[in-house]
Amino acid sequence: MNATVHNRYSPAVEEPMAAGFIEFIGGKLGRYAQVGTQRYWTPLRVLLMFAVIFLGLAYLSKAYCLESVLPGAGLSGAGSAGSSGGAGATTGAGEALLNWSGNRQYTAACYSDTIAGYTQFSYNFPYNVPVADAPKSPVLSTLFGWIMYWISAMVGVVVRLVGLQIAPPVVYFAVTAVTLSILWMITVRIMVDLTGSRVWDTLLLTCSPVVIVHAFTHWEILSITTVVGALWCLSRQHFGYAGVFIGLGISAQIWPVFLLLALYIIAGRNDQWWETLRCTEFTILSWAAINIPVAVLFPHTWFRYFVDVYLQMWDWQSGFALLIRETNWLGFDRATTLNLVTVGMFSVLLVMIIAVIAQSPSTPGVPEVTLLLLVAWLLSTKEWSSQFSLWLVPIIVLAVPKWRLVFAWGAVEAVLWYVQALHMLGKDHLGLPGGMLDFMLIIRGGLLLMLVWVMLRDNIPHIPKTRRRAYRKHTWTAPQSPQWEASLWDFSASADRSPATCTTSRRSSPGDSSP
């Protein structure tokens, strides 16, 4: 049986993980199945339903850190309400406090920067503060958190009017979670378009275990939505609009810059620069529109973020942390040394990626190159915060939709979060040893490398070098395997392809007014 039925890919044919579940609920599609005739339970609505379910699980995973208590309730222990670890220190007299007693943020693995970071906001503009209190996030993320603070303050007034005793950080988290959920639903909707005939691959996004543990750990969904929006624009040859989304994404987190870098690598391979330069132009404009006003009015607090990034030491899940825990080597005890090694390692990996793409007989798509760059950066960076793994989910879905492997990686990420939380308790509180955390990090790294290897294996055939030279004259053409065509775009336009597989080859003329 073909993998597609009525031009829609059926995961029951090629995905053993999906086949077992489909057999359980009634079996795979038959030859005369009426695909696409369901009026209500369309794939989009089913996927949105699963998205809501997993977002609910994500909220429940943080629920134990959302307990409110009245002042004077006799709390004790590190991280209790009103302490520096409880994010409730700025609540007014008589207001409910946040209960983080007994290190519950670690014992229950419910820690969230959204809760802990509540105290950094006030009614004042977040950059109108002393340099020592400068925001720890890029401008757009900081402004997002500040807007959530204002909305939660108004919601908090209603909460108090109805007589509910809820700590302000809890209200703030709830408002933020609802807003991020809306953005996530928009992301799912866009992904349905991007996956095209492989629409059910979007389940890898909506049902990912990474969503449960990290959807509300920080504001990562904000940057993910911008990246997916940029990919959607690229699939429809709107390079200017794609640049706008990339610029917004970089203003929220640094990682969307790898999407732009992927365009440059692909453009360099095919000597097609106009579209990439157009995208870069709008990227700079949108980034400047967000950052320049803040940089001009509050230069010291704006620049402080970049200083903090430079001075930051290794994170718990970075490769440097693993090396230090296992060897007790102190060679990375200075930020300058750490930064030089990080830049050097990523530069080497970048050269290797460019070499692989240059030698491939067919040009990989934007998601594939972005995945290579993102994995290279995460493996070489000094800062791999747990929630950064959420960035990988939509890129992996588009680049290498192997269900069993993707879900296995997601499950390891979820377990890793709990292992890290218990390790952070420390020896005095019977925390897990560093060796267990390092073991999980090695498994996670191995699975990511396996995903990359599978992607390269299926998209870059092993053709002798003498034959590869013949392919260099070809324009961007996706591999012929229908398994991958839904996630590949290139610059050679083809009008008869679906939106998800459409290429990005229309050369915009200098006089073209559309972005």
Automatic annotation (TrEMBL):
Q: Where in the cell is it found?
A: Cell membrane
Regions crossing the membrane:
40-60, 143-163, 170-192, 212-234, 241-267, 287-307, 338-358, 364-380, 392-419, 439-456
Question: Signal peptide: which range, if any?
Answer: none
Reading the lineage from the top rank, the first entry is: Bacteria
Entry similarity comment: Belongs to the glycosyltransferase 87 family.
| Stated name of the protein | DUF2029 domain-containing protein
Q: Name one GO molecular function term.
A: hexosyltransferase activity
Write down the species. Answer: Corynebacterium matruchotii ATCC 33806
